[in-house]
Amino acid sequence: MRCKSLLALLALSVPVTISACEGECIVQITNAYVSNYTTPVDTVMHGLAQRVSQMLPSHPDISTAASYLEPLLSAYDDAAYMGMETAIFPRYFHGKCQQNGVDPPGCPNPDCPVVCGTPGSMVHFFPTLRSLAYNETRARIEAAAAPDSGAYKQVEQNVLDAANEHWRRVSLGRIMPRAPSKTKSSQDIKNQLQSILAQASTMLGEACADDGSGDSVDNLAQCSWETAMKEYILTFP
Fold it and tell me: What is the pTM of this model?
Protein backbone atom coordinates (compact mmCIF):
# COMPACT_ATOMS: atom_id res chain seq x y z
CA MET A 1 0.00 0.00 0.00
CA ARG A 2 1.39 3.41 -0.96
CA CYS A 3 1.78 5.87 1.92
CA LYS A 4 -0.46 8.81 2.80
CA SER A 5 0.64 12.28 1.77
CA LEU A 6 2.63 14.46 4.14
CA LEU A 7 -0.37 16.75 4.60
CA ALA A 8 -2.45 13.78 5.71
CA LEU A 9 0.27 12.70 8.10
CA LEU A 10 0.43 16.21 9.51
CA ALA A 11 -3.29 16.11 10.21
CA LEU A 12 -3.12 12.70 11.88
CA SER A 13 -0.06 13.34 14.03
CA VAL A 14 -0.70 13.74 17.75
CA PRO A 15 2.75 14.08 19.33
CA VAL A 16 3.43 13.07 22.92
CA THR A 17 6.12 14.41 25.21
CA ILE A 18 9.39 12.66 24.44
CA SER A 19 13.08 13.45 24.94
CA ALA A 20 14.16 11.96 21.63
CA CYS A 21 12.43 10.90 18.43
CA GLU A 22 10.95 7.61 19.60
CA GLY A 23 7.90 5.49 18.90
CA GLU A 24 5.29 7.47 17.00
CA CYS A 25 7.82 10.14 16.08
CA ILE A 26 10.01 7.57 14.31
CA VAL A 27 7.05 5.94 12.58
CA GLN A 28 5.51 9.18 11.34
CA ILE A 29 8.72 10.79 10.12
CA THR A 30 9.69 7.58 8.34
CA ASN A 31 6.24 7.40 6.74
CA ALA A 32 6.52 11.04 5.68
CA TYR A 33 9.75 10.38 3.81
CA VAL A 34 8.46 7.21 2.18
CA SER A 35 5.35 9.16 1.15
CA ASN A 36 7.40 12.06 -0.21
CA TYR A 37 9.34 9.68 -2.44
CA THR A 38 6.18 8.21 -3.99
CA THR A 39 6.20 10.79 -6.81
CA PRO A 40 9.92 10.53 -7.70
CA VAL A 41 9.73 6.73 -7.64
CA ASP A 42 6.62 6.79 -9.84
CA THR A 43 8.50 9.09 -12.22
CA VAL A 44 11.27 6.51 -12.45
CA MET A 45 8.76 3.71 -13.09
CA HIS A 46 7.07 5.75 -15.82
CA GLY A 47 10.41 6.39 -17.48
CA LEU A 48 11.31 2.70 -17.34
CA ALA A 49 7.91 1.80 -18.80
CA GLN A 50 8.51 4.19 -21.71
CA ARG A 51 11.80 2.51 -22.50
CA VAL A 52 10.32 -0.98 -22.23
CA SER A 53 7.50 0.05 -24.58
CA GLN A 54 10.01 1.33 -27.13
CA MET A 55 12.05 -1.85 -26.83
CA LEU A 56 9.21 -4.33 -27.32
CA PRO A 57 8.17 -5.13 -30.91
CA SER A 58 4.50 -4.51 -30.15
CA HIS A 59 5.23 -1.06 -28.60
CA PRO A 60 2.48 -1.39 -25.95
CA ASP A 61 1.02 1.72 -24.37
CA ILE A 62 2.72 3.04 -21.23
CA SER A 63 0.15 1.63 -18.80
CA THR A 64 0.56 -1.84 -20.30
CA ALA A 65 4.34 -1.62 -20.19
CA ALA A 66 4.09 -0.37 -16.60
CA SER A 67 2.08 -3.47 -15.67
CA TYR A 68 5.06 -5.60 -16.73
CA LEU A 69 7.16 -3.64 -14.20
CA GLU A 70 4.71 -4.05 -11.32
CA PRO A 71 6.92 -6.62 -9.49
CA LEU A 72 9.67 -4.00 -9.37
CA LEU A 73 7.40 -1.42 -7.75
CA SER A 74 5.96 -3.99 -5.35
CA ALA A 75 9.45 -5.04 -4.24
CA TYR A 76 10.35 -1.40 -3.60
CA ASP A 77 7.12 -0.76 -1.68
CA ASP A 78 7.61 -3.85 0.47
CA ALA A 79 11.10 -2.75 1.56
CA ALA A 80 10.66 1.03 1.63
CA TYR A 81 9.45 1.60 5.19
CA MET A 82 11.86 -0.67 7.07
CA GLY A 83 14.80 0.43 4.96
CA MET A 84 14.00 4.12 5.50
CA GLU A 85 13.54 3.75 9.26
CA THR A 86 16.81 1.87 9.65
CA ALA A 87 18.73 4.32 7.47
CA ILE A 88 17.57 7.39 9.38
CA PHE A 89 17.30 6.35 12.99
CA PRO A 90 19.47 3.52 14.26
CA ARG A 91 22.14 4.30 11.67
CA TYR A 92 22.50 8.03 12.32
CA PHE A 93 19.90 9.71 14.56
CA HIS A 94 20.01 7.29 17.44
CA GLY A 95 18.19 8.21 20.63
CA LYS A 96 19.29 10.57 23.36
CA CYS A 97 22.59 12.43 23.64
CA GLN A 98 23.28 11.10 27.12
CA GLN A 99 26.04 8.59 27.73
CA ASN A 100 25.72 6.65 30.98
CA GLY A 101 23.05 9.12 32.06
CA VAL A 102 25.27 12.18 31.56
CA ASP A 103 25.14 14.74 28.75
CA PRO A 104 28.46 14.89 26.83
CA PRO A 105 30.14 18.34 26.75
CA GLY A 106 28.13 20.74 24.62
CA CYS A 107 24.87 18.78 24.79
CA PRO A 108 21.97 19.17 24.34
CA ASN A 109 23.26 21.59 21.69
CA PRO A 110 22.70 19.88 18.30
CA ASP A 111 26.46 20.15 17.62
CA CYS A 112 27.35 17.93 20.58
CA PRO A 113 29.77 15.04 19.84
CA VAL A 114 26.96 12.48 19.88
CA VAL A 115 24.37 13.04 17.15
CA CYS A 116 21.04 12.94 18.95
CA GLY A 117 17.82 11.49 17.68
CA THR A 118 15.85 14.56 18.72
CA PRO A 119 13.66 16.53 16.30
CA GLY A 120 15.88 19.57 16.83
CA SER A 121 18.94 17.61 15.84
CA MET A 122 17.26 16.31 12.69
CA VAL A 123 16.40 19.87 11.69
CA HIS A 124 19.92 21.05 12.53
CA PHE A 125 21.46 18.31 10.38
CA PHE A 126 18.75 18.48 7.73
CA PRO A 127 21.06 18.19 4.68
CA THR A 128 22.35 14.92 6.15
CA LEU A 129 18.81 13.72 6.82
CA ARG A 130 17.81 14.59 3.25
CA SER A 131 20.83 12.68 1.92
CA LEU A 132 20.09 9.63 4.08
CA ALA A 133 16.51 9.44 2.79
CA TYR A 134 17.62 9.82 -0.84
CA ASN A 135 20.44 7.28 -0.62
CA GLU A 136 18.15 4.73 0.99
CA THR A 137 15.48 5.21 -1.69
CA ARG A 138 18.08 4.82 -4.40
CA ALA A 139 19.46 1.67 -2.75
CA ARG A 140 15.98 0.09 -2.56
CA ILE A 141 15.36 0.80 -6.26
CA GLU A 142 18.76 -0.60 -7.20
CA ALA A 143 18.13 -3.74 -5.15
CA ALA A 144 14.74 -4.33 -6.76
CA ALA A 145 16.18 -3.79 -10.26
CA ALA A 146 19.25 -5.98 -9.75
CA PRO A 147 19.37 -8.91 -12.23
CA ASP A 148 19.60 -11.45 -9.40
CA SER A 149 16.48 -10.20 -7.59
CA GLY A 150 13.17 -12.03 -7.59
CA ALA A 151 11.40 -8.91 -8.84
CA TYR A 152 13.77 -8.63 -11.80
CA LYS A 153 13.15 -12.23 -12.81
CA GLN A 154 9.37 -11.67 -12.73
CA VAL A 155 9.69 -8.52 -14.83
CA GLU A 156 11.94 -10.34 -17.28
CA GLN A 157 9.37 -13.11 -17.67
CA ASN A 158 6.57 -10.60 -18.18
CA VAL A 159 8.53 -8.84 -20.91
CA LEU A 160 9.53 -12.09 -22.63
CA ASP A 161 5.92 -13.27 -22.56
CA ALA A 162 4.78 -10.00 -24.16
CA ALA A 163 7.41 -10.25 -26.91
CA ASN A 164 6.66 -13.90 -27.60
CA GLU A 165 2.92 -13.24 -27.77
CA HIS A 166 3.51 -10.49 -30.33
CA TRP A 167 5.58 -12.74 -32.59
CA ARG A 168 3.12 -15.60 -32.17
CA ARG A 169 0.36 -13.34 -33.43
CA VAL A 170 2.56 -12.18 -36.32
CA SER A 171 3.30 -15.79 -37.30
CA LEU A 172 -0.43 -16.56 -37.30
CA GLY A 173 -1.07 -13.58 -39.54
CA ARG A 174 -3.39 -11.93 -37.00
CA ILE A 175 -1.37 -8.70 -37.09
CA MET A 176 0.90 -7.20 -39.71
CA PRO A 177 4.54 -6.82 -38.71
CA ARG A 178 6.06 -3.37 -38.91
CA ALA A 179 8.33 -3.29 -41.98
CA PRO A 180 11.22 -3.66 -42.03
CA SER A 181 10.94 -5.90 -38.97
CA LYS A 182 13.43 -8.27 -37.41
CA THR A 183 12.43 -10.74 -34.73
CA LYS A 184 14.49 -10.24 -31.59
CA SER A 185 15.79 -13.31 -29.82
CA SER A 186 14.97 -13.92 -26.18
CA GLN A 187 18.57 -13.08 -25.33
CA ASP A 188 18.29 -9.76 -27.17
CA ILE A 189 15.20 -8.92 -25.11
CA LYS A 190 16.95 -9.92 -21.88
CA ASN A 191 20.02 -7.83 -22.68
CA GLN A 192 17.99 -4.76 -23.53
CA LEU A 193 15.84 -5.12 -20.43
CA GLN A 194 18.90 -5.39 -18.21
CA SER A 195 20.30 -2.22 -19.77
CA ILE A 196 17.00 -0.40 -19.21
CA LEU A 197 16.55 -1.41 -15.57
CA ALA A 198 20.16 -0.51 -14.82
CA GLN A 199 19.15 3.10 -15.54
CA ALA A 200 16.71 3.24 -12.59
CA SER A 201 19.21 4.74 -10.16
CA THR A 202 20.31 7.40 -12.64
CA MET A 203 16.69 8.26 -13.38
CA LEU A 204 15.99 8.80 -9.68
CA GLY A 205 19.01 11.11 -9.55
CA GLU A 206 17.59 13.12 -12.43
CA ALA A 207 14.14 13.28 -10.81
CA CYS A 208 15.67 14.53 -7.55
CA ALA A 209 18.26 16.86 -9.14
CA ASP A 210 21.17 14.97 -7.57
CA ASP A 211 24.24 17.05 -8.45
CA GLY A 212 26.68 14.65 -6.85
CA SER A 213 27.52 16.90 -3.90
CA GLY A 214 26.18 14.51 -1.26
CA ASP A 215 24.70 16.20 1.79
CA SER A 216 25.45 19.77 0.69
CA VAL A 217 22.64 22.24 1.29
CA ASP A 218 22.11 22.78 -2.45
CA ASN A 219 21.84 19.14 -3.52
CA LEU A 220 18.62 17.19 -4.20
CA ALA A 221 16.58 20.32 -4.86
CA GLN A 222 13.61 18.30 -6.15
CA CYS A 223 13.64 15.84 -3.23
CA SER A 224 14.19 18.19 -0.32
CA TRP A 225 10.76 19.23 0.93
CA GLU A 226 12.79 21.26 3.43
CA THR A 227 10.20 23.72 4.72
CA ALA A 228 7.39 21.18 5.08
CA MET A 229 9.62 18.51 6.61
CA LYS A 230 11.24 20.83 9.14
CA GLU A 231 7.83 22.06 10.23
CA TYR A 232 6.56 18.50 10.51
CA ILE A 233 9.59 17.21 12.41
CA LEU A 234 9.26 20.02 14.95
CA THR A 235 5.66 19.06 15.75
CA PHE A 236 7.28 16.35 17.86
CA PRO A 237 8.73 17.60 21.19
Answer: 0.84
